[in-house]
């Protein structure tokens, strides 16, 4: 499992502040001062132009499980989070109000994120971290060049898919690892780009996954030392959504205690708390002019 720099700060503060899990997660995320680093990141992103990057944090708390005042102060000042008391036993459920907040923060219809009855009525706290990235390509794909082509799915079945095409100078690395090419597609703001690692065969994805998940492999080397090259680039136009549950992954990384009744979240509340689910919902959308990727 890969945890982004953005997620690392919020995980550290909201989950393990002054708990018995802190040594484990501090080793996992490797950030000396995550609280100040996250706040610095928030301020820096406000100055970014031509790229829309939004970070939002929200906590919905059962009044019976009140948060410690110092914790609330830190979350409000360092993470600019929304904190609301909510009655999880309300007959109509808390899902509608949380979905409304998500829609307000992301601009995306999130009504399917929390369907009615999804949240257990005995819940003590819901914590949500959203990350929105929306940017225009530096070299937009002409719409008249978008054509139907065959795309081979992971199961080997080809499907007709719209492909965008454009010829330009891109940063490229052939055979970055065995039978995998890497290209960087720049956004309008030059500090950002989309890196695509493309296996040369439809069966190469599993091999690529085994390489980048090998603890002895530095993934950053895969995207280093690219060479500016004239390329005719074709890539599919699509909108994909995935929902992932991280319970098993986090437990395997040493956080299993957080999901048990022996967990210690004393830095957050005097109430006995434990994690029930850690879920990420991701959407990736490519079009001729931009890419958008909301995470929450």
From TrEMBL:
It holds the Pfam family Serpin. It comes from Biomphalaria glabrata. The gene is 106078809. This is Serpin domain-containing protein. Coiled coil: none annotated. The lineage of its organism: Eukaryota, Metazoa, Spiralia, Lophotrochozoa, Mollusca. It comes from the Eukaryota. Belongs to the serpin family. GO terms for molecular function: serine-type endopeptidase inhibitor activity. GO terms for cellular component: extracellular space. InterPro entries: Serpin_dom (IPR023796), Serpin_fam (IPR000215), Serpin_sf (IPR036186), Serpin_sf_1 (IPR042178), Serpin_sf_2 (IPR042185). Residues 4-294 form the Serpin domain.
């Amino acid at each position: 499992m890969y945890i982004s720099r953005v997620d690392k700060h919020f995980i550290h503060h909201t989950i393990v502040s002054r708990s018995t899990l802190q040594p484990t997660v501090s080793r996992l995320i490797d950030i000396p001062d995550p609280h100040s680093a996250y706040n610095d990141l928030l301020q820096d992103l406000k100055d970014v132009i031509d790229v829309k990057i939004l970070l939002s944090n929200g906590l919905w708390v059962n009044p019976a499980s009140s948060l410690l005042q110092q914790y609330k102060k830190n979350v409000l000042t360092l993470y600019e989070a929304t904190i609301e008391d909510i009655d999880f036993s309300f007959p109509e459920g808390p899902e509608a109000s949380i979905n409304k907040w998500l829609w307000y923060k992301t601009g995306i219809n999130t009504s399917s994120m929390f369907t009615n009855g999804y949240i257990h009525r005995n819940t003590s706290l819901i914590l949500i971290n959203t990350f929105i990235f929306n940017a225009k390509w530096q070299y937009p794909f002409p719409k008249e060049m978008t054509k139907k082509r065959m795309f081979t799915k992971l199961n080997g079945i080809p499907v007709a898919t719209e492909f965008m095409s454009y010829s330009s100078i891109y940063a490229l690395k052939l055979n970055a690892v065995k039978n995998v090419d890497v290209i960087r597609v720049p956004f309008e703001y030059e500090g950002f780009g989309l890196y695509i690692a493309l296996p040369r065969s439809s069966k190469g994805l599993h091999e690529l996954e085994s390489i980048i998940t090998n603890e002895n492999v530095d993934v950053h080397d895969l995207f280093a030392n690219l060479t500016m090259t004239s390329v005719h680039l074709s890539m599919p136009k699509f909108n994909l959504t995935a929902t992932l549950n991280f319970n098993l992954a986090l437990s395997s990384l040493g956080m299993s205690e957080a999901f048990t009744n022996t967990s210690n979240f004393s830095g957050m509340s005097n109430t006995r708390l434990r994690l029930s689910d850690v879920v990420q919902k991701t959407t990736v959308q490519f079009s001729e002019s931009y890419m958008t990727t909301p995470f929450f």
